[in-house]
Every structure is written in structure tokens, then in C-alpha cells.
Design brief:
The complex is a heterodimer of chains A (211) and B (176). With 211 residues, chain A is mostly helical. Chain A folds into two domains: 45 residues, no CATH class; 161 residues, no CATH class. Chain A is built from seven helices and no strands. In chain A, helix 4 runs antiparallel to helix 6, helix 5 runs antiparallel to helix 7 and helix 6 runs antiparallel to helix 7. Chain B has two helices and eleven strands; from the N terminus they run αββββαβββββββ. Chain B starts with a helix and ends with a strand. Classes of the chains: A mainly alpha (211), B alpha+beta (176).
Chain lengths: 211, 176
């Protein structure tokens, strides 16, 4: 069985370093030199798989886009969090209520919309990246993926609560009910999103500039 | 006549036995360095054989790329992609040594490595030999680089990993 195995895939191109070339070295090999077939690997281990390579290439491309878009998305996400308080009516019950200016409100809504759009575009590239059969997630990627279950629903709930809060404010009402949790949902979502970025990058050299 | 053949066969067996080595255990570790990360990928799945004849020994060690484990499946799949591990699933290392060199504690080996669709020769790679009873432990580090094998260096936050990807080799061979 092992003797029927194919030899190592032939390289498409050759290169050599050192004093002698590979062809010279192979010429020097004795006829009894062991071959790959002698080692007992299964054909599945030794045979080239062009389809799998194509899937790996597509997967890497999509996850690189996912990584880049994910980092860019963090910018409007943080900006949306920062502008949140300016888009909120201020004043407790019994006190004078100060409504946010339309400019502040519109700016916050625009940033929130941009963040939501970019977030789901980022998610698309991870969700639809080709899966590789037989590979179970191990290591930091597991926490990165588990955190999807926090920031994913958060990126649905937060905009919905934001819309509800906007409608209540436009109706001259103080934000109440579930809509009053818009800010909390946003903070939890952003925290989970940040943790997902750190998780997939961990461990990090703290003094990376010394490397 | 049959008896004579049997005697000759039995007499040849010990001679044959001393001239072959089989890889019993191995730990191969690649190491990558990035300004923000240092990562090792380890495989214990190498298989190898050595055949000695006429004063020289030919050794072959091969390991499937998909057996390297860095502790992160995402990184391992990315490694397979950048080294074209589905098209070229094995790393194959060949070397030829004088049989007398196997008795020294320091071994200077010329290696021919097939990896990532390239064949690269490394001259004078130092290895250390230690005896454990009959078994022979051979260890050393292969000074591989991404550029030798035309590997596009993976990057993180747009910063690529270092070009050097040294592979530490620890093998235990059993004479047959």
C-alpha cells in the first residue's frame, strides 16, 4: 500500500541556497535512498488538493477584508458612543428638560447608521468565508466567535432602541420604556466588539516597538 | 541448497539491521516573530527513514503541513494558505551523511527541503547527536526564511511577520 503512494509533489520552481544545487544533491543520492512512499503516509495526506487551496485562498481573502473593515468600523462605533450623550435630552423629572440640538441628533444618527452598515458588511465577510471541513475552532478564535453572540444581537437591538428613542423625543416625550436602554445596549455592544478585536489579537507584546 | 540460502539470509540480517534507521519520535516546531506576537507551531507527526550503504547514509523526513498546531485553528488555516499547503501538503527533508559522521556528537548536514512548492538547499546546518541506549537523538534548527520558499509574509495590522521562520527539529531514531 505504502509503496503505491506518489512521490512528493514536484515544485513548480526551484531555488537553492548554500554551496550546491538540489539537482546536484539529488544526483549524489544513492539508489537505495528512501522515498516518500516508504514512510507510510496515506494518499489523502500526500496528494495535492487544488480545490482546497482555492477555498483557503478565498477564505483568507474574505477574512482579511473582514479584519480591515472590522478595524475601520471601530472608528464610527466609538464616535457614535461619544456623540450619544449630546443626542440625549437632559434634565431629571421636575427639572427643565434640555432637548438636543437637531445637528447633534442628526450627527449621532448618521454615525449610528454608518456603524450599523459597516458592521453588517464586516460580518458578511466572516459569515460567508468558506468553511474548511473537519477543522474545529481552537484558541483565541473561539472567544472571538463567541463574542459574536453578544455584539451581533447588540447591533440589531441598539439601532432599534435608538429609533424608538428618537420617535419618543420627536413626540416631545422623555425617552422611556425599553428605548431608555439604548445607551446601555450600545455600551455593552461596543465593549463586546472591542473585546472580540483584542481576543483575536491576543497575546500581544506590550513593548512591541522593541521587537 | 535451501539450508545454505537460509544461513546466508540469516547472516545478512544483522548487517541489514545496522544499516537502517527509523524515526521513532519527533517534535518539529516552526517559529514566527511579529512585532506584536511570537508564535510556535508544533507537529509530532513526522515520519522518517535512513538507509546506509557504502559508507554513506541517506535520510528522509516528511511531515504533513496540516499537522502543525499553533494553538489557534484560524492561524493554522492561514499558515496552510500562505504556504500553499493544500497544493503541496508535505514538507520533505533529505540529507546524505557519511556513516562515520553519525558517530560524532556534532553533525554538519546539507539539507534539501521541499516546501511550499520550492526546493531549497541549506548547507552546513549544525545538528547535535545524543545517544539514548541504542536510540539516537538528533536535534537542531533549520534557518528557514519566507523568502527562500517564496512565501508572501502574512501581516497583522499591515505589519508583516519577520522573514526568518526557524524550524527547530528534535528527532529520535531507532536503528533497525
Amino acid at each position: 500500500m505504502a509503496a503505491d503512494l506518489p512521490d512528493a509533489p514536484l515544485p513548480q520552481d526551484g531555488q537553492s541556497t548554500g554551496q550546491s544545487s538540489p539537482s546536484e544533491n539529488q544526483q549524489k543520492q544513492a539508489p537505495q535512498a528512501p522515498s516518500l512512499g516508504d514512510l507510510g503516509f496515506t494518499p489523502a495526506q500526500t496528494q495535492a488538493n487544488a480545490k482546497l487551496q482555492a477555498r483557503l485562498n478565498k477564505r483568507t481573502h474574505m477574512l482579511k477584508v473582514h479584519q480591515t473593515l472590522g478595524l475601520i468600523t471601530a472608528i464610527p462605533m466609538v464616535a457614535t458612543l461619544i456623540t450619544g450623550p449630546q443626542a440625549k435630552a437632559k434634565g431629571r423629572n421636575g427639572q427643565t428638560i434640555t432637548e438636543p440640538t437637531p445637528a447633534n441628533l442628526d450627527f449621532h444618527i448618521a454615525l449610528g447608521g454608518l456603524t450599523t452598515g459597516m458592521y453588517w458588511t464586516t460580518a458578511y465577510y466572516a459569515i460567508f468565508a468558506p468553511k474548511i471541513a473537519g477543522v474545529k475552532p481552537r484558541g483565541a478564535i473561539r472567544l472571538h466567535r463567541d463574542l459574536e453572540w453578544v455584539h451581533g444581537p447588540g447591533m440589531i437591538i441598539t439601532p432599534l432602541l435608538g429609533i424608538a428613542a428618537y420617535k419618543q423625543e420627536n413626540a416631545g416625550e422623555k425617552v422611556h420604556g425599553l428605548a431608555s436602554y439604548h445607551g446601555t445596549a450600545a455600551v455593552v455592544t461596543a465593549a463586546a466588539y472591542g473585546a472580540a478585536i483584542v481576543a483575536v489579537s491576543w497575546p500581544i507584546h506590550l513593548k512591541f516597538w522593541e521587537k | 541448497m535451501k539450508f545454505l540460502c537460509a544461513v546466508l539470509l540469516l547472516a545478512a540480517l544483522p548487517l541489514h539491521a545496522q544499516n537502517q534507521y527509523v524515526l521513532q519520535q519527533s517534535t518539529l516546531t516552526w517559529h514566527i516573530t511579529h512585532p506584536m506576537h511570537d508564535v510556535d507551531g508544533i507537529s509530532h507527526a513526522a515520519k522518517g527513514k535512513g538507509v546506509c550503504s557504502g559508507g554513506t547514509c541517506d535520510f528522509l523526513v516528511a511531515v504533513p503541513l496540516n499537522t502543525f498546531n499553533s494553538g489557534d485553528s484560524n492561524r493554522d488555516l492561514h499558515m496552510l494558505q500562505v504556504v500553499r499547503g493544500a497544493e503541496f501538503p508535505m514538507v520533505v527533508v533529505r540529507t546524505q551523511l557519511a556513516q562515520s559522521a553519525l558517530k560524532a556528537s556534532a553533525i554538519d548536514a546539507d539539507l534539501t527541503i521541499q516546501f511550499a512548492g520550492q526546493t531549497v538547499h541549506y548547507s552546513h546546518v549544525p545538528f547535535h547527536r545524543t545517544m539514548h541506549g541504542k536510540d539516537v537523538e538528533i536535534s537542531g534548527t533549520i534557518p528557514a526564511t519566507c523568502s527562500d520558499f517564496k512565501i508572501d509574509r502574512p501581516s497583522f495590522l499591515t505589519v508583516p511577520i519577520h522573514n526568518e521562520i526557524p524550524v527547530t527539529v528534535n528527532t529520535i531514531w531507532q536503528p533497525m
